[in-house]
Design goal:
There is one protein chain. With 290 residues, the protein is of the alpha/beta class. The protein has 11 helices and 11 strands. It has helices spanning 51-61, 81-84, 86-96, 114-123, 137-143, 150-162, 182-194, 213-224, 228-236, 247-261, 267-275; strands at 2-4, 15-16, 19-20, 46-48, 67-70, 100-105, 126-131, 167-170, 199-201, 206-208, 241-243. The strands form 3 sheets. It has a 6-stranded parallel sheet, sandwiched between helices. The chain has a 3-stranded mixed sheet with strand order 1-4-3, with no helix packed on it.
Length: 290
């Protein structure tokens, strides 16, 4: 871990990453790609030490309230968050200034901040996005070694449901010859139905590989799935999009299950929902601590 000062914290689309890098160890992580120009080891987390100050300044200056997002490139609930509490401090500021919040995580540590999410949700909208890739706990430990297990994430989704926090699941990536089985997809969808998620984001049954994350992914395949790297190279070469040979049938199962259970499954509509600020009550001055 190391600290750095940055010039800004919010992107043009009101997204932020309080940290850079990740310690989850997911074998498929796109954030390892060279195009992101990370100039330090991926597991050596860069902490943006002035992020909270910059965020408050940015929120104070905004003329129109909106949704503030985090987690697109670095999980906001890595283990170091338990000590640093940057994500919690950011959520408190979002609540203080009356903005909405949405975050992406693979950790049940999000429940630590359930109190703030509920208070944000009383006035506008707080949405938790959770990634689910495999219903097999042993496989989860192989492809996502340092995250909350799928069972733990499922329990978190149910607790969020019981507290009226809207949730969205990312059903990705689906790794050919690893987790691209009908049984796995069906079990994940059953979890989504039970947790009453609002939507499921799925870009197809596959993954993306490019320079940087491809090499890391192949090294992990050699460790945990001997011989599979050669099959990938033989069938996909250097393709960016790696689709499962079962993609069509699995996508039919996905769309059919969502339709039957009233779950949003149009990516564009889900992203529109995530970006749409909703004000539930008349605006009022909020204290950071109320």
């Amino acid at each position: 871990m190391h600290y750095t000062k940055v010039k800004g914290i919010l992107s043009q689309n009101n997204g932020m990453n309080l940290y850079r890098g990740c310690t989850h160890g997911c074998i498929y992580c796109d954030s390892r790609s060279n195009c992101y120009q990370m100039n330090h080891e991926f597991e050596d987390i860069e902490v943006k030490e002035n992020a909270i100050e910059l965020l408050e300044n940015a929120l104070r200056r905004k003329r129109k309230r909106c949704m503030i997002g985090t987690g697109s490139m670095s999980d906001p609930y890595m283990p170091l968050e338990a000590r640093l509490e940057y994500t919690r401090k950011a959520l408190l500021l979002i609540k203080k200034y009356g903005f909405g919040a949405t975050l992406i995580t693979k950790s049940d540590r999000v429940l630590r901040d359930l109190d703030i999410l509920k208070r944000i949700n009383q006035k506008t909208k707080a949405v938790v996005q959770m990634t689910l890739t495999t219903a097999d706990e042993a496989l989860c430990k192989l492809i996502e070694p340092n995250v909350s297990t799928t069972k733990q994430r499922f329990e978190a989704l149910k607790i969020l449901r019981d507290n009226n926090i809207p949730t969205v699941v990312w059903l990705c990536p689906v790794l050919p010859y690893i987790n691209d089985t009908e049984d796995n997809i069906r079990r994940i969808l059953d979890m989504c139905v039970a947790a009453k998620v609002r939507g499921i984001i799925c870009f197809g049954m596959g993954l993306t590989l490019r320079e940087g994350n491809r090499e890391y992914f192949y090294r992990q395949l050699d460790k945990s799935f001997p011989g599979l790297k050669e099959r990938y190279i033989r069938e996909y070469g250097n393709q960016y999009v790696i689709n499962s040979p079962k993609s069509a049938e699995l996508m039919r199962l996905f769309h059919r299950t969502c339709e039957q259970n009233g779950i949003m499954h149009d990516n564009d509509l889900i992203f529109e929902y995530l970006s749409q600020f909703e004000e539930k009550n008349a605006p009022q001055q909020l204290s950071l601590w109320d």
